[in-house]
Design brief:
Number of strands of chain B: 12
Largest sheet of chain B: 6 strands, mixed
Low-confidence stretches of chain A: 1-20
GO molecular function (chain A): phospholipid transporter activity
Distance between the termini of chain A: 63 Å
Largest interface: A-B, 29 and 33 residues
Shape of chain A: elongated
Number of helices of chain A: 10
Keywords (chain A): Membrane, Transmembrane, Transmembrane helix
Strand content of chain B: 15-25%
CATH class of one domain in chain B: Alpha Beta
GO cellular component, one term (chain A): ATP-binding cassette (ABC) transporter complex
Radius of gyration of chain B: 21 Å
Protein name (chain A): ABC transporter permease
Number of strands of chain A: 0
CATH superfamily of one domain in chain B: P-loop containing nucleotide triphosphate hydrolases
Largest sheet of chain A: none
Order of helices and strands of chain B: EEEHEEHEHHHEHEHEEHHEEHHH
Helix content of chain A: over 70%
Number of domains of chain A: 1
Mean pLDDT of chain A: 82
Structural class of chain A: mainly alpha
Bound molecules: adenosine-5'-triphosphate, magnesium ion
Organism (chain A): Actinoallomurus iriomotensis
Oligomer: heterodimer
Chain lengths: ~280, ~350
């Protein structure tokens, strides 16, 4: 698989080929293949038996690579938001609402974004590297020849594990972020604990949390699918795996931001917001 | 009983790079075939296309009435159960030790008890000489050991078609000799259809019933061993005798100036070396696919090079053969003096 391509002059020329290799491939074929794989994965998800062991292993693995960085990112994120929002709110003369705006900002937007980035970076790269290494060692081919569908065996458990961990991470980010915001606001900015607490649910509502969890779920699924696709199509030896991991992180992060925007827009359309 | 594979007009390219075109051949049921070709001519790609891991641009690959490139996913997975495949680098599962690797197909596809699995696995590990390495991870063993473990895993379900990608690369000469004997013995025992990709000329000359040669994006020749070993076709002749003189150069093809220079130097390909006798099963059985030595040559009026069919003990197999056959009965009906 790793031999250098044969001499150009010896291969048959074809007028369509250069285009097919380049732009068309990137714009149409790759996304096409990605969606085809996603559909096949969805189909494989309903096949018996479910791979519990792989699921648990992967979930544990993803947790282990994401929790620490998530917490490390969530604390300063909550603090910054409190600082920025707190200042703004004070200037507007609505000190009593600092708590509620911080909660709103963290639960609604910050935590899905932090979760998205961490899942894309930590979980996505790990999944892609793992599957990519298996692919170039021909383990995936061997599995298929042994009559086992790698989508069912490897990809489905990873996608579900990533989604599951996404939900959980989103919860962590919210809690840690709000705690960080509280500490920052009350201890460093001299806000009153009572005001922070009592305005807690002033603007935020339960659907905010639901939409954040839905986002986290979608992000988890997307990142795992992108990572699996890139891993399973890796070629060209160890360097190919490195490239695939790199592309996974970039593509997954972009996809997650787009999804975040779409889901937020939908949410504002569908769910009535609380007034001040 | 082995299964016939009929490959018809198979063509494969990656993007603009055509790997091979219009490959047509039949791997006869229960026979051992060897595929040769310079590095990078797409032998591994050919094996992967046969099992449906790569989709050809055109053509068919019939296993019975099933056409591998055009099967639905479910049927494809079913048909693959006929195959045992040894990949070029062994393709062991890196996260499992050797025992679990070899036991994997049994645990997936049979309801055997753990003790039955253990018995079969140990038997296969002994066959490939890996006893004692059960608990090792693939990353902790040598390339040759990985190869042998991969072979054991490919054999564990007793497949009807066995595809081996360079089983002998990375093996020492003694292990290679044992491996060749193992292949012949396995074929005698199970009558599976074998396709072996190899760079080992000795293997290619002594083991198979049929030889094929891929070169310059096409199948140059495919046929009975004696046909290729006695062939005057320059590419076949050069390759099967591992010579520098001939159309194959360092970079796949020699260019015109190189060939002219060679002609001026007065290099001539010399006389064909003797055709060695075919390797027989160790226990003295006859394989169902066994042909009589010299059968093809006689049928086509070709005189073999002097000294052909003489083994290391100096026995002439052309003379020895009738006695040898008379002493034993073939494993499965109708062989003996070869096919009609
Ligand atoms: N997945 C792939 N994508 C693109 N090109 C490929 C792919 N797999 C193989 N090739 C190309 O196909 C050609 C044949 O490769 P292959 O591995 O089949 O050679 P081979 O005959 O097995 O060589 P060797 O004897 O060295 O193992 C090479 O030029 C290689 O670059
Ligand atoms: Mg190869």
């Amino acid at each position: 698989m790793t031999q250098a391509p044969e001499r150009e002059s010896e291969t048959k020329p074809s007028r369509l080929a250069p285009v097919a290799d380049g732009a068309v491939n990137v714009i149409f074929r790759e996304p096409g293949r990605f969606f085809a794989m996603s559909l096949d994965t969805a189909r494989a998800a309903f096949k018996w038996p479910f791979q519990w062991q792989e699921f648990l292993q992967q979930a544990w693995f993803i947790v282990s690579v994401t929790v620490a960085p998530t917490i490390m990112v969530a604390i300063p994120f909550g603090a910054i938001l409190s600082l920025q929002v707190g200042n703004l709110i004070r200037q507007l003369g609505a000190q009593s609402q600092t708590g509620s705006t911080a909660v709103l900002a963290i639960v609604r937007e910050a935590s899905p974004i932090v979760t998205a980035l961490l899942i894309a970076a930590a979980a996505g790269s790990a999944i892609c590297a793992d599957l990519g290494a298996r692919k170039i060692r021909e383990e995936i081919d061997a599995m298929e020849v042994l009559g086992i569908n790698p989508l069912h065996r490897l990809v489905v458990p990873r996608v579900l594990a990533c989604a599951f961990v996404g939900l959980f991470l989103n919860g962590i980010v919210s809690v840690v972020g709000i705690a960080g915001g509280y500490i920052f606001n009350v201890m460093l900015q001299g806000g009153t604990p009572g005001a922070y607490m009592s305005s807690f649910s002033g603007l935020a509502q339960l659907p905010d949390l639901y939409q954040a969890e839905v986002k986290a779920l979608v992000f988890g699924v997307t990142a795992a699918l992108v990572a699996s696709y890139k891993g399973l199509t890796a070629s060209g030896g160890p360097k190919g795996v490195g490239d695939a991991v790199n592309q996974t992180v970039v593509i997954a992060a972009m996809a997650l931001f787009v999804e975040n925007f779409v889901l937020s827009a939908l949410y504002f359309q569908l769910v009535p917001q609380k007034g001040m | 009983m082995g299964v016939e594979i009929r490959v018809d007009g198979l063509t494969k390219s990656f993007g603009r790079q055509v790997i091979w075109e219009d490959v047509t051949l039949t791997l006869p049921a229960g026979e051992i075939s060897v595929m040769l070709g310079p590095s990078g001519t797409g032998k591994s790609v050919f094996l992967k296309t046969l099992v449906g891991l790569l989709k050809p641009d055109r053509g068919h690959c019939w296993i019975g009435d099933r056409d591998m490139p055009h099967l639905r996913e479910h049927d494809l997975y079913e048909t693959r159960k006929l195959f045992g495949v040894l990949f070029q680098d062994g393709a062991l599962f890196g996260s499992m030790n050797l025992f679990d690797n070899i036991a994997f197909p049994l645990r997936e596809h049979t309801n055997k008890s753990e003790s039955a699995v253990k018995k079969i696995v140990m038997e296969k590990m002994e066959m490939v000489g890996l006893v004692g390495a059960e608990r090792k991870l693939p990353g902790e063993i040598s390339g040759g050991m990985r190869k042998r473990a991969g072979l054991a895993r490919a054999l564990v379900l007793e497949p009807e078609i066995i595809l081996c990608d360079e089983p002998d690369s990375g093996l020492d000469p003694v292990r290679t000799a044992y491996l060749n004997q193992l292949i012949v013995d396995l074929n005698a025992e199970t009558n599976a259809t074998f396709l072996i990709v190899t760079h080992d000329i000795n293997t290619a000359r002594t083991v198979p019933d049929n030889i094929g040669l891929l070169f310059r994006r096409e199948l140059v020749m495919f046929g009975p061993r004696e046909m290729l070993l006695s062939s005057e076709e320059p590419v076949v002749r050069q390759f099967l005798n591992a010579r520098k003189v001939g159309p194959i150069g360092m970079s796949e093809e020699k260019d015109v100036s190189e060939l002219e220079a060679e002609a001026r130097m007065g290099h001539d390909p010399g006389v064909l070396p003797p055709i060695p006798p075919q390797l027989m099963p160790a226990d003295g059985r006859l394989r169902a696919a066994q042909r009589a030595p010299g059968e093809w040559l006689r049928a086509h009026g070709v005189t073999p090079p002097a000294g052909s069919f003489v083994d290391e003990q100096g026995r002439d197999w052309l003379e020895e053969w009738p006695r040898y056959v008379a002493e034993r009965t073939p494993v499965a009906g109708g062989a003996g003096g070869g096919r009609p």
